């Protein structure tokens, strides 16, 4: 990014309310609202952005500042924004931020360095964190792959800084995945050679300057599997803040080992299980249950993985099924099960865009309505999650206490959650659930969907009725009063 003056750097330090650049432990009880900077908010909300448009629509950092009330109103205390670096001058490949050309220049379509600083100030004043998306693996260039102008890249402007030309063709060959290029002959993403000591040192200097200049709290890292693992150990030691790696794979045995090198990983394997189970009422719980157990066994720290059910690379959940009860179930699982929850902007509107680019809708054209079903639902889930996290003396993993072919019940601390893929049109169903931890003959309240009080049986079992396929959350009745959930 553009270097700051001494005065502006001092102003940043003196103005920041409290110490930021957050470590991993400080992210555990946070929740993240993911947004595409170009598609979330403009300062002129009349700007059109057609469905599937591959180009800039006008979203800016200052637009985000003006809509922080909307984000925080849902309960979020962190946002994840698009890469901030200067991109190639091709809107169709640059609006999302993954075709960078200059590490030290800001993407001026999003705003100035001062605009970005103002966003940081505004977030920190609200005790909210900023997660910035970054790309280490590659750079975007003009021209065909066999005629790259390396001098256009900053700071890596020599051909020797990059791996020789080859495109990934065998995705099961890890050497090829790490050393070959993404993109195409026409639009290549040239692959930086991160094994070189000079490249590593340059990245270290750049990332440390970025953190100190902008008080960034965490990084989401793109295309992690395309860089050798020991680079990430080097990188993590250099940044000393929370890192969240994208390893796009459904294989938990492939994804989790990256957590030996970075603080966290996007739980893509869990995403695939959630999408398969909650979008299909004929799907059983076996695979999902098995995956939860595998995550707890294989991942170094499941509580630092990130749970999500939508993002900018996958079809919207409502594209898989329009059933609002199933959408509520998948969002509730995302918010209340293990890991740091991420909700993708527009999910609160139940948007139904398909594959990229149709899942990258402009939010200003939807309107920033705070009375939609899922906006209010996510707000309610945040109240439950904050209570649950505040009452944990440690951060235990969720325990599976009941399953049948369509239902999964988890216990985490003193909170019991029920999820089902039966759907909104399903008939009422009575279940008997044990091992809840609730005291026999005590009262508990379902606080998510019904606000009904249930009496725990003398044998400790909880008899519940699932209606309209809704997710459910049970808390001891005596703790519910001060939460503003069932007043």
The share of residues in helices is: 25-40%
Largest sheet properties: 8 strands, parallel
Shape: globular
Distance between the termini: 49 Å
How many helices? The count is: 15
DSSP, total strands: 21
The unreliable regions are: 1-19
> What value does the average pLDDT take?
94
Radius of gyration: 23 Å
Question: What class would the helix/strand composition place it in?
Answer: alpha/beta
Walk me through this protein's architecture.
Helices cover 29% and strands 18% of the residues. The protein is built from 15 helices and 21 strands. Helix 11 packs antiparallel against helix 12. The longest helix has 18 residues. The termini are far apart. The relative contact order is 0.10.
């Amino acid at each position: 990014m553009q270097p700051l003056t001494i005065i502006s750097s001092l102003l940043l330090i003196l103005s920041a309310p409290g110490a930021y650049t957050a470590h991993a432990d400080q992210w555990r009880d946070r929740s993240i609202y993911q947004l595409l900077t170009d598609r979330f908010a403009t300062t002129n909300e009349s700007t059109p952005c057609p469905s599937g448009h591959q180009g800039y629509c006008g979203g800016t950092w200052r637009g985000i500042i003006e809509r922080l009330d909307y984000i925080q109103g849902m309960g979020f205390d962190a946002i994840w924004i698009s890469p901030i670096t200067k991109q190639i001058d091709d809107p169709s490949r640059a609006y999302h931020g993954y075709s960078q050309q200059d590490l030290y220049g800001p993407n001026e379509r999003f705003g100035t360095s001062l605009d970005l600083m103002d966003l940081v100030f505004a977030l920190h004043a609200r005790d909210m964190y900023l997660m910035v998306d970054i790309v280490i693996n590659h750079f975007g260039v003009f021209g065909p792959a066999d005629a790259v102008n390396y001098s256009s890249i900053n700071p890596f402007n020599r051909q020797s800084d990059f791996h020789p030309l080859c495109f990934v063709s065998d995705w099961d060959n890890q050497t090829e995945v790490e050393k070959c290029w993404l993109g195409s002959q026409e639009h290549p993403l040239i692959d930086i050679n991160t094994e070189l000591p000079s490249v590593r040192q340059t990245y270290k200097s750049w990332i440390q300057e970025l953190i100190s200049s902008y008080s960034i709290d965490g990084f989401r890292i793109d295309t992690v599997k395309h860089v050798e693992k020991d680079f990430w150990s080097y990188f993590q030691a250099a940044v000393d803040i929370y890192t969240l790696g994208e390893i796009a794979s459904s294989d938990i045995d492939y994804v989790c080992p990256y957590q030996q090198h970075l603080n966290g990983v996007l739980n893509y394997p869990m995403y695939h299980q959630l999408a398969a189970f909650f979008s299909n009422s004929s799907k059983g719980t076996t695979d999902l249950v098995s995956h939860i157990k595998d995550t707890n066994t294989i991942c170094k720290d499941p509580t630092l993985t990130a749970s999500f059910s939508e993002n900018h690379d996958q079809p919207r959940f409502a594209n898989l099924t329009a059933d609002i009860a199933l959408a509520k179930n998948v969002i509730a699982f995302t918010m209340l099960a293990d890991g740091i929850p991420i909700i993708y902007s527009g999910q609160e509107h139940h948007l139904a865009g398909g594959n990229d680019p149709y899942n990258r809708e402009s939010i200003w054209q939807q309107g920033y309505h705070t009375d939609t079903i899922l906006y209010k639902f996510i707000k309610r889930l945040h109240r439950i999650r904050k209570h649950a996290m505040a009452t944990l003396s440690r951060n235990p993993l969720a325990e599976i206490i009941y399953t049948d072919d369509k239902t999964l019940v988890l216990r985490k601390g003193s909170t019991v959650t029920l999820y089902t893929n039966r759907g909104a049109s399903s008939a009422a169903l009575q279940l008997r659930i044990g091992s809840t931890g609730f005291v026999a003959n005590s009262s508990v309240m379902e606080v998510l969907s019904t606000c009904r009080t249930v009496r725990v049986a003398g044998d400790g079992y909880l008899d519940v009725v699932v209606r309209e396929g809704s997710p459910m959350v049970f808390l001891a009745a005596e703790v519910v009063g001060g939460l503003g959930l069932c007043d």
